[in-house]
Amino acid sequence: MAKYAAAIDQGTTSTRCMIFDHGGQVVSVAQKEHEQIYPKPGWVEHDATEIWARTQEVIQEAVDAAGAGDGDISGVGITNQRETTLVWDRTTGEPIHNALVWQDTRTDKLVDEFSRDGGQARFQAQVGLPLATYFSGPKIRWILDNVDGASAKAESGDLLFGNMDTWLIWNLTGGTDGGLHITDVTNASRTMLMDLKTLDWDAGIMDVMGVPRAMLPSIKASSEVYGDVVSGALKGVPLAGDLGDQQAATFGQTCFSVGEAKNTYGTGNFLLLNTGTEPVASKSGLLTTVGYKIGDQDAVYCLEGSIAITGALVQWLRDNLKMIQAAPEVEELAKSVEDNGGCYIVPAFSGLFAPYWKSNARGVMAGLTRYVTAGHIARATLEATAYQSREVVEAMNADSGVALESLKVDGGMVGNDLLMQFQADLLGVPVIRPKVPETTSLGAAYAAGLATGLWSAVEDLRENWVEDKRWEPSMDAAERDEYYKYWKRAVERTFDWFDADA
Questions:
Q1: Which of 133, 230, 252, 345: disulfide with 105, CB 3.0–4.6 Å?
Q2: Does position 380 have pLDDT exceeding 50, yes or no?
């Protein structure tokens, strides 16, 4: 009898496979990074063939580490970096171009073109998203426009589009030999091509963007049996879950009730609030997105605040400035000073996402004096994450009409006590970390386990959620507001750094 569920978590900087038991505890984990490719300023690419190779390696390592035999794993779920866009040849299985990563801004002119008739909110009523470089639709169009012969091949059905979930599922289920070309409602809701109400591709938007329906995957529920893995260490295991990474984290945090929210601290930050079975339009710069869909049940929607650069700013300190050798060192460096020394960093490397949606913004470091040291810069790096999260929380409070009372947090940065305390101080509410902080993988495993009977209902998943640590706010309101005033001033300096149509 099956005792585990597995998750493949294909993230922006690495891919991992995790295996969980019925109690939601980690049995094994394997993780490998992949290359970040920066051909030009603002351009970010991944080699999808490398990602598939890393995926196969981590699956093997995780299964071996768990000692899992035939029948031990009930199902496997996929979770993935969303919006990262790949087009590949149906016959050869080869990508026709590197994947365009969600952070990539090369589609800014296409976005401007689409916005001329109807503005940035042209499709927002249907898809819940403003026109922005972030989303997959314009990225598909860019690939078709810039690879010789691609448009004609796409029209004839010879090319396939997918975010990274679709690419992995296609390969896991056979690739060129009968692989399933599917996605789920959460990933489809990030393309700008799916109608939120019908949960189907929107013919009008596809026509405007020049994306042929023949290249788009079928849209499925987030938790259902799609088919079996055909090779490798998970051969014969049902593939039964698919969620974009932030929706998976929301699922793993068991935010199943209206009004429950979580914030994931990863490469970027993503705050999601469950709004129930009807999509809620945002008036404050947030996204309306599908949260999850379990089998034949109604889809559940979320409001989302997306921040492009948080953990990636720490990587920038490490890789570009060489100020630290490993990401965890940033906390010790930041602790070497008592405050930020007046230094603020606004990491608009890919423009500003929620709540501003300014693709022509660029990063700034503000408030510099001779007093500022590497410690102050490290502290400003961490604080930037908390400030951006506060902006999103304020927008969410405005849209929902309900003030946040506490914040569930997860992701790689929540082991950083200095950051978590500052986040609680800045929000003025408790910040709560669960026992299993990597809830993205857990959510994908939960989706697969629900579909294959390892868990019978979402109530079983709620029982697994255990608080690990809580940070209570300790900063007085006047000090909090003073910090935030200068943050807002620094953000304004990033606006319109270059002309949008330059």
A1: 133
A2: yes
